[in-house]
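Meet our chain:
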Amino acid sequence: MTVFPPDTLRRGACPSLSAPMQTGDGLLVRLRPAAPALTGEDLLALAGLARENGNGLIEITARGNLQLRGLTEASVPRLAAGLSAAGIVPQTGVAIEIPPLSGIDPSETADAMPVADDLRKAIAAASPVLAPKLAIVVDGGGVLSLADMVADIRLDALADGSAWRLSVGGDRRTARPVAVLAADRVIDGAMTVVSALAALGPAARGRDLDAAPLAARFGTVSQPAADDAVSNHPLGIHRIGGESLFGVAPAYGQVHADRLAALVRDLAACGAFEFRLAPHRTLLVRGLSEDALAAAQDCAVREGFWCTQTAPGRAVSICAGAAGCASARFDTHAAADAVVAEAGGLLDGSLDVHISGCPKGCAHPARAAVTLCGTAAGVGLVLDGRASDAPAATLPAGDLKPAIQRLGTLLSACRMEGETARSLLDRTAPAALVSAFQGQQ
């Protein structure tokens, strides 16, 4: 039996084949296939391995990684061997994210893939000691850009394709600019920031960097992000060039292997030949003709997948909850279902709702308009903050569903015709939300 070092069986590091994480339902392994796309056979192999070596639960994360749950110390090596036999090679090293359609989207400003590959090799050669969850985004734009993805280091292709904007600690809009770099200086420039992070210590993140001294080292005029930076949600149908892509997502990012396998077989029968992991817990499907799209949507709905931009649950981020994590304090899935049932009409995509089993906030590290967070004292309500922030009010977990009903009733009654949920929440007094949550109306 393989014995993993104790410090790998904990939160704070990204779980991998060599360092799985202990959760409430066993060990969890996260992996990102090195190949940009998977075949149907690849996904069927992954489903079989999840069933044979774990509890069959597969998750697609907010950043488009795969997670397999319910593993044991004995089954993790068998999983690794099975992946190797199937020809599925997990990506290793620092996480570098690129748009899921890089290299095949004619509307992209630049192909991010070769830049990401060169940067990954440079980091591997330098072997810096970096934070386990350090994230780098290389965004070449296109239909499904990563404008909304938070990263410690960002490289964004400029609109004219002449250079890359280097920035730190945020998404495309909020990251602090450091430099504008010509293509032949991009890797060296990014490695300067990597070295600065390494110098701060193994826990340093992009938010810890002082951008001004970094910018001074480059001697270039940093360029702010474009005001019109837009990141489309990958769910639903997208047109790139002359083809249609179909984005599907398991409800709240989690699906049993049997249902994933059934969907893959059905979509293959409709003509699908390629699958790409995408942010927002989505799987992009290629190969469907216009005539086959309706049948593909029916298949997705039948297997419990979301496949439209209007799926209300897509605005809700949840972790595994008490059923799958020893740190969680309540059933996050039941709470999410209650939010969709009681306030589904308010989930229009203009705001995020985060339901976190504990203050670690693994499912949504960024701020959210509304967060329900499990604590030792009960489930806390956090407004416009993170799961780790102090809650405005706390209730016993058993009182959560009525509280969600009260909040839904209050907001629905106050909503003006055509008003977005974001606007509604912005003009609703926090005291009124707290009062409804606590049942003091």
